[in-house]
Design brief:
Helix 6 runs parallel beside helix 10 and helix 9 runs antiparallel to helix 10. With 678 residues, this protein is of the alpha/beta class. The strands form two sheets. Strands 1-4-3-2-5-6-7-8 form an eight-stranded mixed sheet. A six-stranded parallel sheet has the order 11-10-9-12-13-14, with helices on both faces.
Amino acid sequence: MITTAIRVARVGSAAELAAAVLMMLGFPVLMLAALIPSIPVFAAAAAVTYLADHYLHRKGSYLINRLSKVRAGLSIRFLIRELLLVLLLARVSLSDNLMFYGAVAAFIAFYGLQAPHGALVTLIRNRRRMPVATRNVDLGARIRIPDAPPRWLLDRSAEKVLHLDLAAVTGVLISVEFDSAVAGFIGIGLTVGLGAAYVLALAPYVRGRRIPPRAETVLAAVDDWLRGYRPQTVLYFSGSKESAYQVNMWLETMEQLDSKPLILLRERAILERMAPTTAPVVCVPGGVHLMNMDLSTVQVALYAANVGKNIHLLRVPTMKHVFIGHGDSDKLASVNPFSKVYDEVWTAGRAGRDRYAIADVGVRDDDIAEVGRPQLAPIRSWQGVPEDRIPTVLYAPTWEGWDDSPGNTSLLLAGENIVRALVTADPPVRVLYKPHPFTGTRSPAAKAAHQRITALVQQAATERAAGSAFTADPAAETAARAELTRVEARLAALSGGGEDGDEAEATREGVADLATFQEIAGLRTEWNDAYWRSFPTWQHQVITDAEPRLYDCFNVSDAMVSDISSVVSDFIASGKPYAVTDSAELGTEEFKRQNTAVRAAVILSNSAAELGRLLTAVRDPATDPLAAERRDLKRYLLGPDEPASIVQFNTAVKALAAKADSRNRGQETRTAATELAG
């Protein structure tokens, strides 16, 4: 019942649900206490509403956002509590008392301060928001970017200023209870005085040298940096905050380019969620600003997603435009007709080329290049299940997609059957459940299925831990958790130095130190190792955070169950057995005909009855009938192992850059000839 209530209220935990219930019940109790009147009950209910409200804000509760949509926002809740306090004063026969008038005047003055406070906070944030935000671009040497205001001034500022009424409310209640006006007037004075002080503290940050230069000055500085740096290859990306992983997967490849890289982002939310990189990053939200940037030295532009904002760079004829995507799969998105707008489309292997030919969406074969998948380098080949542990099976379903096609994801029709079969397998296996980051973002049914599967895995983990069939090593796990704590603390120290600043300050300070970057990379490797040692090798796990990454899960798994997505193509690089669910019930032969990546897979029906074949292949690789097919399919999907993918990728970049240079020289020659003829 509690789980259902949490899901309906869209809160994150039982504690959050309890806080929401207490806050909503607290206000009717306040009204009753004011009418009775009862000062102790009023004080207790007020304390509950203050604490619950603060807790929900600190947790970033969805409910808080919903309350503001139904005109029960933060300011209204505080105002109601203050009005009920005034009602309480009237009910205890103090309506002619100086305390009554003082409280009314104080609350009016206090709310009068909210307007300048809100205006100043908005002005500061707007004036400090520059037209671009950068990383690894030395703008601080070209323009003056002042320090951000202290974090305590702007962080959750509306909540903070409204909570200043606590002094007045407390003082008035004490005065009424003990029949002494001193505490009330002290509280009133503190509330109004602190509110005024807050406003005065904000005022210096809206003008003069406390704000960054104007937009045109900042953009000129960016152009100056671009002329000095002379970028040659751009990775362009636009998307929602949830899609940050699509650009993150290309960062290491960009760092390894032989040409000078530049990463162009269009949304600030993506920049905030972007993984650390040594490549220069420029986030330009404004289309006009981007179109006026000096990108004359760029020869090749790479696009990881098909989105509308791509047009702002596609319009530039002096560079060659390439769609590289964010994964290789047989989904319809992998043969989007929009791909015709690019000069070239790069695929991992021959399968991508054939996919476009079969789809017949207007992408010419001559415009396709096979470049491998440089991101797959961290995936280790399978050497069989180690003797000291049971097999691990990764269940990594994709999300529900933009429509309700049953073939989009196995979660809805097969997910629970798959997980139930795995957690009850005999001989036993360990299950890692890592769903797609978008799971449940569009479909409530998919979200509910995900929650049921999570509960199944967690229940199985609890039962296994309580049983006697497996033994743990508490000392080793404690040591691993201590190692995690140490590494996380060091990572926080290295990467959290700008927590008190804002975007402008991060732009000024965001130049990566190579030694620090390398240390962070080493620490992330240590973190991953310690994470897997922090619990038994037989313990089921639900993994929904960004860390450990999908490829880390690949490396500790012996087999995988998934859906039609790039996850399958990537997993094939490991050579391990895998299964794919035919959720749309096309039938094995038709499913394989339509989806290249499943031709070496165990095909599962929605009942998951075929899982035994996958587990047999894991336990006895010598009898695996699909091993040779997986090797052939790997080459077909992902290209040859030699030369390395990054070498193939760099070769493709150089070839296309040469075409861009040839085109531009031809244009210059024609322009010169026209001028001479004129």
